[in-house]
Write a sequence for this structure.
């Protein structure tokens, strides 16, 4: 019969709502039984697993809609927005350093069970820092796409309360949900609750929330991934940094990344004249990814509304200058 560790893993994954781990363990048990000569039982078990997977897929909601996984808890539903993203890391333009760090997290998450057999925890707590529009929020979505889990966006406006102690209770609700609802938990604009505790304006509820966050993130041993994103890392309390497995900096795009972004977002369209992409990169210097993408979209719109066949270089340059201004 199945090894004791496999049975324990099966029960634990069911209790934590970790479907991927549950089905993986079940398939391992089936394979083990087949090797032991119990072929009929192994085949029956495999058929049951495949049928269960199919039923779960049929029950899965349209990926374009919000997944109401937290609706049974009204309080929690008011604190978190949930959706299943479609994008993956290959859909993003990333620096080699950032991409390497993210791939390492994905690899460890996919093989977390092996790591835990050696009493090692996979990477699962990230602090993303950098200017607005450089891909921090999109990264959370791409990681969720890679791991096949939803993104849980923590609504900080709903978290902070004027009543003493209420914000801490709300924060605890979020951390309590992590073992039962595996996903990417994104604390965007994290500096709003993570600023220095010794700053005069942070006495009160914000300071208590930060202390509570430090305690909860230290205690959390779930299979969920926690991501804090900030545009102002210099304002964060120093005690926060050592709570994260990795601190990833997202810089503004360089010349090559600007060119790649423009080409990617204008794929399928042609310019009416030969384009010098380094020249466009100079025009886009200092812009973030979001601004460059929007400039590309503005250029396409101009082509459509002017009833042109191809894109105009002048429209692209104008769109980039407008974003820069």
């Amino acid at each position: 019969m199945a090894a004791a560790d496999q049975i324990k893993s099966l029960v634990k994954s069911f209790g934590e709502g970790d479907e991927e781990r549950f089905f993986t363990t079940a398939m391992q048990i089936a394979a083990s039984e087949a090797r032991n000569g119990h072929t009929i039982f192994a085949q029956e078990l495999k058929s049951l697993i495949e049928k269960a997977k199919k039923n779960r897929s049929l029950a899965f909601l349209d990926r374009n809609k919000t997944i109401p996984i937290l609706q049974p808890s009204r309080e929690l539903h008011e604190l978190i927005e949930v959706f299943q993203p479609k994008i993956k890391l290959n859909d993003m333009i990333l620096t080699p350093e950032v991409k390497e760090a993210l791939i390492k997290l994905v690899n460890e998450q996919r093989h977390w069970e092996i790591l835990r057999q050696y009493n090692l925890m996979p990477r699962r707590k990230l602090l993303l820092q950098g200017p607005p529009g450089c891909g921090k929020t999109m990264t959370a979505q791409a990681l969720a796409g890679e791991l096949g889990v939803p993104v849980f966006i923590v609504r900080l406006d709903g978290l902070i309360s004027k009543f003493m102690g209420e914000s801490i209770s709300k924060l605890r609700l979020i951390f309590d949900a992590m073992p039962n609802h595996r996903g990417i938990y994104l604390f965007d604009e994290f500096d709003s609750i993570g600023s220095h505790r010794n700053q005069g304006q942070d006495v009160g509820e914000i300071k208590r929330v930060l202390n509570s966050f430090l305690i909860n993130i230290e205690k959390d041993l779930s299979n969920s991934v926690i991501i804090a994103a900030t545009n102002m890392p210099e304002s964060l309390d120093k005690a926060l940094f050592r709570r994260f497995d990795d601190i990833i900096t997202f810089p503004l795009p360089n010349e090559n990344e600007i060119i790649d972004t423009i080409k990617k977002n204008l794929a399928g369209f042609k310019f009416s004249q030969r384009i010098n992409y380094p020249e466009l990169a100079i025009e886009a210097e200092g812009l973030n990814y979001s601004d460059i993408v929007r400039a590309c979209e503005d250029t396409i719109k101009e082509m459509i509304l002017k009833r042109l066949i191809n894109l105009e270089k002048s429209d692209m340059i104008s769109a980039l200058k407008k974003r820069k201004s």
Summary: Residues 57-72 have pLDDT under 50 and may be disordered. The chain has 16 helices and six strands. The beta strands are 80-83, 125-129, 151-154, 184-187, 225-230, 246-249.
